[in-house]
Amino acid sequence: MVSIDLLTPRTRRRHAHVTKPPTLVHLDRATILSEDQATVFSDLSLRIRAGQRWVLFCKEQETITALLKCVAGLQEPERGVVTILGHVSWPLGQVTCVSNKLSCADNCRFLAGIYGQRGMIKQEMALVEELMALQREQWLRPLLKLPSAVKTRLKLALSLAFDFDLYVMDASALRHFRRTNPWTDTWQSLLEQRLRTRAVLSAGPIPLEDGGAGAKGLVLAKGHLVKKGPLAECQAYWTGQLDPGNHRSRR
Amino acid sequence: MLESLWLQVDIVRALAFREQSERIRKSEFGAVGLLVEPLIFVGLWLLLRIALRARGSDLMNPVLQFGSGFVLFYLFSSIALRAINGVSRAQRFADLRRVRPLDVLMAGALVESQIYSTCLVLVIVGVALAQWHITLADPGAAVAFFLLLVITALGVGISALVIGHRVPLVKLVVKLVVRRLLFWTSGLFFSIAIIPEYLRPYLLWNPLLHGIELFRHALVPSYPIPGISLPYLLAWALGSVGFSMLVYGNNEQLLVSDEVGE
User: A3: number of CA atoms within 13 Å, CB side?
Assistant: First the structure.
């Protein structure tokens, strides 16, 4: 029986009789091309199982964005197959269906109705309200009338509020958020709670103290997989391959 | 399977909540504003009738007759026409993998049903207050006929959406039929009983006419409904929704991939 911590209750029920961590996402020779037909990534095969941690090393932001979206099911590859068998988050902080006409409360209630657990909508809304740390009146005001930073904060709060089997994230975007927004203990403990027990695919180091424990690495260069394996090996390979003048090396 | 069904119910309710909240925020008068538009149409047509001093049919209270006809017609056309434009509306939720185009269409139908059922209740209560007498002989039947019209509208809309995706002319034809042809042939301005017998067979092809007349009959049992058939309306409801689910199920990927590609 798979550990009860690795999966959301719904997915756990679906895989009640399996004895090894089930596959959550399977990319089978997936290829994505850009609008001008340049290769974003090509012929990539990847299987992410429950509880696994994957760290992606890549210089090209377009490849990172496309791969994260592909794994999250938001982008179809031009060739190959992506099979999603679990509950996968959208790239953390990149919820696009937040409506400016609605308030934080209404947006939260909407997403809680779709991604929340049955009967837990109020608790999930309370969690997001605590993360947002807004006055009651601001919580109920349309996003259109609030600063844009509030919307950014809301998007990340919504990404972390719900329970997914696999969290997909761009670590550099999260670091940017932490630099530009108040980062309280509530945020940190929730992030740790989510990332510690579930599968993670992170572009960049996983923001946990033991983020490297048991993790695997994936190195992409110019859209092609060059190395896949234990994180330490991939990290060493990545460090060795970096151009000293490239600022991205300081991730 | 039950769990999947509950999940879909939750998703449809969440989508309906969002649509309703957005419409309320957009309206000048809040939630009341949602009811104002359909009621204004009823009021305008009633005023026109009074201005023309048109002779009433004495079959039922003219406010109830017009009110029920208009509200049910706008219910049908709103649901069907919104369903036809469903792909572009579902695009907004492309990033939510759990949301399917069908969920968006059903949520839209739910919102419209809530609005127009409230309008109907207001019309019936308004007449009751004026007459000191509630005109609603068979509320269960009235609700059933209302729901059958909702189901028929959804079935027609989804069928037109899917078929129209492959043959765009179908969408145009359905929109034209709903907005123009059905408006004049669905019994909004007349009762089927006053139509000459040689014309009735042509009008009786229209399922919306059956729904509206049956609803009126549920309000007033003495309201005559020659040639009106509940089995016909039922067949349309089940047939249209069954056909729409069949074509939708075989073409959902086409709709979804076109959404993502747009």
Answer: 10
* CA A200-A164-B255 angle, 5° bins: 105
**Inter-chain touch A112–B14, beta carbons under 8 Å:** yes
Q: What separation, in Å, do the N-terminal and C-terminal C-alpha atoms of chain A show?
A: 38
| Residue B177, CA atoms < 13 Å, CB-side half-sphere | 16
Q: How many Å apart are CA B256 and CA B262, to the nearest integer?
A: 10
pLDDT, greater one: A135 or A3: A135
Sign of the torsion angle spanned by Cα atoms B129, B131, B133, B139: negative
Q: Are B192 and B55 in contact (CB under 8 A)?
A: no
pLDDT the model gives residue A71: 92
Shortest distance between the Cα of B37 and any Cα of chain A, in A, equals 21
A114 contacts in B (CB within 8 Å)? Answer: 10-11, 14-15, 96, 98-99
Which chain A residues have any C-beta within 8 angstroms of a chain B C-beta?
10, 13, 72-76, 84, 88, 90, 95-97, 99, 101-102, 106, 109-115, 118, 142
pLDDT of residue A221: 87
In chain B, which residue's Cα lies nearest the Cα of A13? B3
Cα distance between residue A245 and residue A247, in whole Å:
6
Q: Which residues of chain B have pLDDT under 50?
A: 259-262
Put simply, the chain B residues between 7 and 26 with a CB less than 8 A from any chain A CB are 10-11, 13-15, 17-18, 21-22, 25-26
E strand map for chain B: none
Read off the tokens for B55: 């002779």
Give the helix, strand, coil percentages of chain A, each rounded to 5: 40, 25, 35
CB A127 within 8 A of CB A190: yes
pTM score of the predicted model: 0.85
Residue of A nearest to B1 (CA): A14
Q: How many domains does chain B have?
A: 1
Domain that holds residue B38: 2-260
C-alpha span between B192 and B228 (Å, rounded): 8
Which one, of B220, A130, B179, lies nearest residue A122 by Cα?
A130
Lowest-confidence segment of A33-37, A58-62, A179-183, B173-177 by average pLDDT:
A33-37
Which tens digits make up the pLDDT trace of A225-238?
A: 888 899 888 988 88
- The answer to whether B97 contacts A112, with C-beta atoms less than 8 Å apart, is no
Nearest by CB to B17, from A76, A84, A110: name it: A110
A-chain CB neighbours of B96 within 8 Å are 97, 114-115
User: pLDDT value at position A242?
Assistant: 64
Distances (CA, A) of B154 to A23, A69, B80, B210, B243: 37, 33, 6, 17, 11
Going across the sheet that includes A39-49, the strands are: A39-49, A23-33, A79-84
d(CA B44, CA B235): 34
In this predicted structure, the answer to whether residue A2 has a pLDDT above a threshold of 60 is no
